[in-house]
Structures are given as C-alpha cells and as structure tokens.
Amino acid sequence: MSDTTADQPRPTLPAHLQDPVTRTVVRVQNRIVQAAREHLTGQGFVELMPPIIGPVTDPGGRGSKQIDIDFYGHRYKLMTSAILYKQASLLAFDKIFCVAPNVRLEPLETANTSRHLVEFRQLDVEIAGASREDAMGVAQDIVVQAVTAVVEEMSDDLARLGRDPQAFAALLKNDAPFDRTTHEEAVAHLARLGHDQNPDAEIDWEGEALLSAQADRPFFITDYPKGSRGFYDREDADRPGVLRNYDLIAPEGYGELMSGSEREYDYARIIARMRETGENPAKYAWYLDMVRAGIPGSAGFGIGVERLTRYVAGLDAVWQATPFPKTPGVVSA
Amino acid sequence: MTRVLTAGGFAEEQVRARARDGAAAAFPRREDYGRRLFGAEGTPRAGRPGDALESLRLVPPVFVPQRLEKLIELAREPHYGDVDLATTVGGFRSTAPLYVSAFGSTQVAASGLGTAVSRQAGRLGIPMVVGENIVPTVGYRGSDGESGMLARLSAYESEVPDGFGGVTFQQSTEDADAEVWNLLYSAPSAQKLLDSGRLAFELKVGQGAKPGLGGMTVVDTASAVRLAEHYTTDDVYGDGRHVLRSSSPGTFTEEILRQQIRLMRNNYPRARVWVKLPPGRDVRRAAAVAWEAGADAVTVDGAEGGSGWAPLSFLDHVGLPLGECLQRMRAWEERHCLLVSGRMWEGGRVARSLALGARAAGLGRAALLAVDENPDDGLDRLVSCLLLELRLLISALGKYAPGALGPEDVWAPDGTGTTPAH
User: Fold this and answer.
1) pLDDT in tens, A108-118
2) Which residue in A has a C-alpha nearest to residue B257's C-alpha?
3) Which of B190, B205, B192, B100 is nearest to B140 (CA)?
4) Which residue among B248, B256, B268 sits closest to A63, beta carbon to beta carbon?
5) What is A196-211 written as a DSSP string?
6) Which pLDDT tens digit goes with each residue over A143-171?
7) B52-214+249-411, what's its fold?
8) Taking the model in full, what pTM does it have?
9) A13-321 — its CATH code?
C-alpha cells in the first residue's frame, strides 16, 4: 500500500466507472457486504432500513461538518451516522444492523489521508444488553467472515487487483481474538516511535497509520479518553475519564476500519455528556424524550464499508472503493 | 467623522481625541505648552469609584538593573523607543500586548464598524476576536457582504502582515447549533490563517457586562419570528416592533469545561484554543481548569467590560471588577497566557494589567469608538498613542518588554492592592 494515489487527480466519473479495477472492487465489496449480512442474519440480527434525514444526527468530531437541509421550514440534517437511530431501534429488536449512507463534510486537511470520503456507507450493528467485549467479538467475526469469503471465492479478482491473499494469513490462521491495546499504551508506543501524540485526543491520522503499518492483522485500540469522542460512548464507571469504546485498526497502514462502544443510556448522564461535548441539548428533543422514557443499554459499532473494501482489495485510497467518490473539498459528480 | 455611537460612562471623548490625533493625544494639548502647569488630578481620570485597577499607581524604581542589561546590549543609554512590545498572545505572535475583543451580532458591530475594526486590527498585526452569534443571527457570509463572519475574516486577512496577528472565533451554545467552528475549520477562506497557525477558537463561558447571562440584542419582531427557534425572545418593550433576544449562557461545571476544551483540541488540532471567562467569584479556579485542559489563552472580561446590550442592574451591580479578578488570579505567579479586557483604551491601565499577570489587553468599546470617529485609521491612531504610552511607562519602570512587568511595579495607596511596590 502507498499513499501516492491519494495525491493524484481523480479520474472523471465515466472513466472511473469503466475502469476494470472499479468493477472488480465493486464485486469484492458486494461479497463483503453479503458475507456480513449472511453472518449477522444467521446470528439472529434483524436488518433495519435507516433514515437519511432527521432533525438531529451524530454530532461527529474531528472538525467534520453536517449538511443542513430545509425540511418544510425546519432545519434538518443529513445523517452523519445512524447511532441515535440504532439506539432507538432497540425498542423494536434486541439485535439490529443496517447498511447506512452517511455524509460528513470532513475538514480539508483530510483530503490526502487516503481514507476519507465525504459520502460513505457504514455497516452498523447494535446489540441490546451487550458489553463492549460482546460487540468486539461480533465485529471480529464480520471481518473474518468477509475476508474468508473473498479469499476463498474471489481469488481471480484479488489477482486482478494485485492483492496477495497471503496478506491475510495472520488474520485467518487462527480464531484467537484480535490483539488489543489501550489508547494510553498506543500513545506511549507512538512516543517511542518519535510521534508526538496528544494523550487527551484521538490518535491522529499520522499516528494511526504508524501503528497500523506495524501490524500484520487487525487489532483493537480501546479506552479512548473522554473529550475525544461523542456523548454516546459510555464512560467507565470505575475509571472516570475513560470510555468503554474501541476502534478496529487494519494492518499494513490502512488505518481505522470501525469505531464502537458501549453506549450511554442514562438520561442525566447523556445530558451532562452533551454539555461536555459542546452540544445544545435542545436540539435533541426527540432523542432525549425517548431516553427519558427509557432505552436499553447496548453496545455496537459501525464499519466503514469503503474502508474495509479498501483493505481487503489492497487499494491505495478509499475513493477507489466506491463507484461515485466524493472526497473532501473536491467538487465531483 | 461619522459619530454614530455614544458610550456614556466610558472615556468616550478621550478615545475620540486619540482616534483623531494619534500619539500626540498621549500628552496635554500642545497649545498649552509653556502656558499651563501640569500635575496629578485628585481623582483618577478614567476610573470609576471602586475600580481597584485604577487606584493602583505604577511606581518606577531608582535602581534599574534591566536598564543596565539593555545599556550593555545597545552600548548606549536606552530610551523608551527601545521597548520591544512584540509578544505572544494566545499562541499568536503580536506586534503589541493588545488584541481586539469580541463584539458579536449587536447592531453596533454589524453596522460595518466590525469590518472596519477588522481591517485595522489586521494592519496593526494584533489578534482579533470575532464574537458569538454572528452566524445564527447575521449569517456566515452576511446578506450585505459587510457584516457576516467571512467579511470580518477577509477584511483582517487583507492587511495583516506576515507572521503576526491571528483571528479567534467565538462560539456559544447557539453557535454550536450553527457549527461555527466546523464551518470555519473547513472553509477555504480560512485555510491561509489556519496553515500559518493564526486561527483560534474561543469557547465563550461568559462575559463581563452581564456575567451569568448570555448574549442579548434588541431585534425587530420580524427577525424575532425567524430567531425564535434558537433563542429566547421576550416582549419587554411592548411596542409591537421590538423584542429582547437572549442567548443561553450555557451550563458549566469543572468537568464540562475541561472536556469541552479537550474536545476542541481533539476536533481542531490545528487551531488555537481560547476560553473566555466572566468575572465570576471562582475565576481563578476556572482559569486553572482551562489551562490544565490545554487552553492556549484564558480571557477574563472584567465587570467593566462589554460593548453589547446588557441590563442596567448588571452593569452597575454584578461581577468582579477586573482589578479584583487580577488580584484573585495571581497570574503573575504563572507563565500561562491571561488576556484581560474592560475599559482598556490607554497605556496606564494596560500596563497595570500586565504588571498583575496579564499577557495582553483587549480593546472593545474603545476600538468601536475609534473607528466610529474615523473608519479609515481611527483604531490605528488610538493604538499608536497607547503604544507610545506603554513604551514610556515600561521604560520608566526600567524594563524593555511587556512580559518583564510584575507586581513589584504597582502600589496600592490603601494597602488593599497586591504586592506593594518596593
């Protein structure tokens, strides 16, 4: 994998769609999503159709911006993540998933990270009554099932993409849990590598790539500090300031594939966390009414479909993993 | 001369004189030279009763070791022109220990004066804060191209010298709905300042003129309907044409403040983080929390501060005077960046604030009045006068940089001040 493609001009839409690489990538992506659906459905999950607009959405982070639309005179948002609706969905079913479109106007500094799209799909999972460890297990299973399906059934396509199946040897050789490292350990590791990482913040793009490049199979980073994530990631009751959350990082420098957590579900704690994250609770009326009436505790995650596709297909940049790419700051079809 | 504004209770005529005459206004009228005897007046000229800051005197020492250091450096006797006023303000390099305070969506600031101030602040190479509520009230671009947030940014950027200055954008609770910081962080027009490390975001916790309340404006009833979804509106005038529009002051605890600052650093790693505090009784603790969480600057607006609409009962009765804030904070013991505002327009008050631990002083009403007097270079002239005074005062204290001032340079006649001059 290299970052060179990220800086190259994107092809025009017809050329991108007609590129044999794009067609092969889309087939691989089909198989990845199909494998996830087969696995989750087999485990008793129900697929719900997610909304695209709403009065409020995930506030996001790291400088990403929401898109407002006029909804009969009211300000509505395009979904940046299905998280609030995933929590609501557990009033209907205990185990749900969806393949959700999201739009985030990412800051211009992400234009050349090779892994940011303004418009992307997320495979979202939410499980009532689950712990973080339960959710991490489901997340690992999805990745293993998807990679297995592609490696076993699409060797010709991988060959056309120049992706060596041996890249997945460490991932597939056993069913041991993926390695785990805490955010604190990751920060210390980066310091040893000479990378100055803010200990209170998300692992920055460069730091994430450094850690990713040193791994040969996916691994989890857990326990992000409060202040680096949204109000819905649950704070550890025994360790104030530490969140019961995790990211799954791909090996080979591909970086983050998914984020997940145990969710906050207590009304008063959610209000306080909203203030801590600079949010105005008045915006979240429907959500807070629902939480006040009671929602189940849960854990879940969202996998970036294009990012997972990029990793499996061995692509230089995430925009190659979607037929209609929209990258930060680039006016495109 | 435009003269749209008045500022009763403020040193309006003195500010206007400086906006007209520049550095010459640091002295008595030239026409009186040789004809009049000058000496201290019995009461502080610009002070208000109970203003502890005004009651302090700057007291030069007889022995001046720092002047000897400067003498050795220069190989001649130093004079006031050798004072280097350049300093660091909230992560920005500034030509002087000054910045332009926030004024937001009030009618005064939106009238075009805000843009005039922006242009001159940029020219001076001093940082500028753009106040809250502009985006939800006036708009990101502004309907007339003159009053929106981008107009102030581009006016500043058009004249700022390389390597100096910076623009700080405030955000309050309602601004969070409008995603002001997100808008700016990814705005192509803000990238130049961002790339050169000259963009900051200021979390507004409160303000001097009305601590405990949010921003307030008077709006016409048509605008009130548009704004009612996001603001409180109150028909206090009963004339069918105007209503009071109020923002939420927001709700803060130590943990909420700490985490909001961390989130700012997480979400906007390339922007500086400023925090504006009201003159509250726990201001020292609040500033400590902000600095511990990684704020590049903490701004404290004394109760004398403010340029916007505020209830009279607050103006006269609520909040700590700046002098008391400075004494409680004891910022001279730290190396953190403390910025202060409240009735700043002349060198003596600024110098006293610097001596009590402030890094820089903010010009609010004075900046607006100066451009009201002369929209082309009123602020330039006001600041040139103030800087001359600062150079005179700092050199008289035997020092040659604003950061060299300390509590030993001031003396409180009633013994209630900080460290007496010794």
Assistant:
1) 888 888 889 99
2) A276
3) B190
4) B268
5) ---TTSPPPHHHHHHH
6) 999 999 999 999 999 999 999 999 999 99
7) TIM Barrel (3.20.20)
8) 0.89
9) 3.30.930.10
